[in-house]
Amino acid sequence: MIFMTITALVLAEVCSALPLSGSIYIWAAESAGPKYARFFAFIVACWSTSSWITFVATNTQSTAFYVVSQLAVWEIDFPGGISNDNVKWRALIWAISEGFLVLSVVMNYLPPRVYSGVFKFSVVLIIIDFLLCLVWLPIAAHNTYGLRSAKEVFTMANNGTGAPPAWNWMLSFYFSAAIFIGFDASGHVAEETKRAHVNAGRGMIYSVLATAVLGFATTILFLFCTPNFDLLFSLNAPQPFVQIYALAFGKRASIFMTAIATISSIMGTTVIIVAGSRLVFAVARDGVLPLSQWIGKVDKDGQPRNSVTLVSVLAAALLCTILPSQVAFTSLLSSGGISTIASYGLIPLLRFTMTPHMFKASHFYLGKFALPFYLVSAVWNGLIFAVLISPFYFPVDAESFNFACVIFGFVTAFAIVSWWLTPADKWLRQEQIEVALHSSEGHPDVAAPAAVVDTDLSEKPTEKEGN
Fold it and tell me: Confidence class of residue 51 from pLDDT cuts 50, 70 and 90?
């Protein structure tokens, strides 16, 4: 909660200085200064685009897990068993995941006004889901298998990883930090946001705070409501909470909770597609690379539909890796989180070492807290990066090895090679970088980069439709 909020404040400072769609690689370029801006922009652009595309695939598979877990609840036999070793089971997961991806993509093609209504409906569902867990779950758990005691919740430890005790404790940061990944989404739709120099950064800060407060409450709640370890580890569904719902509420009621979670997750995927497509759109906007003109095209509503299509096609291709190997797919998805955390750590590191006194015109200028916040953010995200690339089970073998570190290395190498081979006039030209840096300092005589003016999305939606 504390360190990710500091990270959000650091990113909000840069975002406010120059809010653009797909901002994170621009933030890295600004933070590096004009000499190294293009190099770090290439690296973070590759990191972030690969991350958001894998997030789409991750969320669709997680949604599928909710649905298929009902088979375990109702004790329905599946040919070959419910196991990732069973190719028929993986094929079922893949087919349902692709189906949910199609639904999420279709919603991204809805007119802005209709999409806004669907999104608000999904937010209401999420709130209902949270309130039911907050009120109904502890009552139901108390009346069935029983709540854990405060001593168990706050003092019991379990080493199920095989790691040394200290690193087993460090691995607990995996999920607590992972839920914050993606809080920069509001920055990627900055060009479609009113008063973006304020609201885009504020959106990131609010996202972290909401996740922190509600996530902490949820964690404590679930620790009290989770069955004892023997029962918990006997659950064999891909999403064990579906079986916990069945134990607490009953089988029929678990269908209701699963349906709410499924619909909410589908809408979550649509939002991820929005952020990811704006990032891809921005990469195309800033250069004349192959397909740039097609990807950077907007429709009559001002929406970059072609970039939505591209992100969706790539996510669908990633989902196909489920068929040959679940381990390969899981490693691909883990690499997405690693790349995002690496970006969160790199930007404050660049601010600390290369541009510590810039962007004073930012609405979220940190002042005397700037240098300490840059250092804390860089160290904290470096620590989380180490956790995310670590094996999650010991001793390490081919099945437990975390290949995400290998994939991250490949993406980084690809970024460096792309920077080396791409002419400076083909993507993120030096004059664009320098103009952006000057405008971010609040110079009124400096216009925004031409590429931004030509494709500014913020003026496209009507006032009635809103942003």
Answer: very high
Q: What pLDDT is recorded for position 443? A: 46
DSSP secondary structure letters along 259-314: HHHHHHHHHHHHHHHHHHHHHHHHHHHTB--TTHHHHT---TTS--HHHHHHHHHH
Kindly report which listed range (105-109, 287-291, 458-462) carries the lowest average pLDDT score. Answer: 458-462
370-389 and 2-17 helices cross at what angle (nearest 10)? 120
Question: What is the separation of C-alpha 318 from the centre of its chain, rounded to a whole number of angstroms?
Answer: 16
Please identify which residue in the block is written with the tokens 């709640």.
221
- Check residue 282 and give left, alpha or beta (phi > 0: left; psi -120 to 50: alpha): alpha
Q: What is the mean pLDDT of residues 92-104?
A: 95
- The amino acid occupying position 43 is I
Tokens of 107: 């919603």
What pLDDT, on a 0 to 100 scale, did the predictor assign at position 440? 63
Is the Cβ–Cβ distance between 192 and 467 less than 8 Å? yes
> Which pLDDT belongs to residue 441?
65
Closest of 279, 402, 389, 378 to residue 338, by C-alpha: 389
The answer to whether residues 102 and 60 touch, using CB atoms and an 8 Å cutoff, is: no
DSSP SS3 for 427: strand
Domains of the chain and any CATH numbers: 2-454 (1.20.1740.10)
What is the rounded distance in angstroms from the CA atom of residue 214 to the CA atom of residue 124? 15
Q: Give φ, ψ of 235 to 5 degrees.
A: -70, 130
Number of other CB atoms surrounding residue 85 within 10 Å:
9
Percent of the chain scoring above 90 in pLDDT: 53
**Count of residues in the chain:** 467
Q: Each residue of 180-202: pLDDT tens digit?
A: 998 998 888 887 888 988 999 99
Q: Is the dihedral of CA 255, 261, 267, 270 positive or negative?
A: negative
Residue 159 region by backbone torsions, left for phi larger than 0, else alpha for psi between -120 and 50, else beta? beta
> What is the per-residue DSSP string for 44-62?
HHHHHHHHHHHHHHHHHHH
Long-range contacts of 289-294 (CB under 8 A, 24+ apart): 289/422, 289/426, 289/427
